[in-house]
Amino acid sequence: MEFGEVVRRRRMVRAYDPDRPVPEEVVTRALEHATRSPSAGFSQGWDFVVLTTEQERERFWSAATSAEARERMDPWLRGVRSAPCLVVCLSDKEAYLERYAEPDKGRADRDEAHWPVPYWDVDTGMAALLMLLTAVDEGLGGLFFGVPVEHGAQTVAALGAPAGRRIVGVVAMGYAASDRDRRSPSLRRGRRPVSEVAHRGAYGRPWVGGEVRREVEQG
Ligand SMILES: Cc1cc2nc3c(=O)[nH]c(=O)nc-3n(C[C@H](O)[C@H](O)[C@H](O)COP(=O)(O)O)c2cc1C
Hints:
Layout: H1 3-9, H2 24-34, E1 46-51, H3 54-64, H4 67-72, H5 75-81, E2 85-91, H6 93-99, H7 119-137, E3 141-145, H8 152-158, E4 166-174, H9 194-197, H10 210-218
Antiparallel strand pairs: 1-2, 2-4, 3-4
The structure holds flavin mononucleotide (FMN).
Flavin mononucleotide binds at residues 11-12, 14, 144-146, 169, 184, 186-187.
C-alpha cells in the first residue's frame, strides 16, 4: 500500500473477528518495524510482550482490568477483548540512564532531571505507531490503548516482566469486525487543521501550504 494511504486509512479498531488469528509473519513484520523506530542515543529501551493464545490474553485481561469491569463487560471491553493479538509495549527507563552514563553522552550522574521529557516512553510510543501502521498495510486493524494506573504494576508482574518496566500502552491487532466496530465519539471533536497546529517561523503565524495556500490566494 502507498505510504500516504496507510497513514490516511489508519484508525483505531475496537472490535475484531475473534476467529481470524493474525498470521505469525504479520506479527513478526510489525515487530521488525517496531525495532526500526528511532530512539534517543539508540537506547532502544523497549520490550514487546506478544500475547496470541487465549490463555496468554486472559492472563493479561485479568491483571489489567478489575473483576467488576470484566463482569460488566461494557461494549468497549467486549470489543477489544475480541482482538486475537495483543502486544504489550514496555518502556525501560534504566536503559536510558545507563546509555547516557556512557562516555559519549557523559551523564554519569544518571540524574533524571536531564530528562524533562521521558524519552523511554516517547520512543516506545513511536515503535507502537509503526506496529499500527504495519497492521493497516497488511489489511488488518489495530488499537493503541492504555492500562489503568492502578493495574499497571500487577500487569507487569503477570507478564513476568521486571518491576521497573512501564506499560506505555498495548497494541491490539486483528481483522476488523466492521459490523460491530464503533468509531470513538471523541472524533466528533474534529481534526485540527494543519493551519491551526503548525506555525510558520514562530508561534501564532499559521502554516498555510499547498491546497490551503492556493485557496487563500484565490479567495
Ligand atoms: C496515547 C494514546 C492512548 C489511547 N488510549 C486509548 C484507550 O485507552 N482506549 C481507546 O479506545 N482508545 C485509545 N486511544 C485511541 C484514541 O481515542 C484515538 O486515537 C483518537 O480518538 C483518534 O481516532 P483514530 O486513531 O481512530 O483516528 C489512544 C490513543 C493514544 C495515542
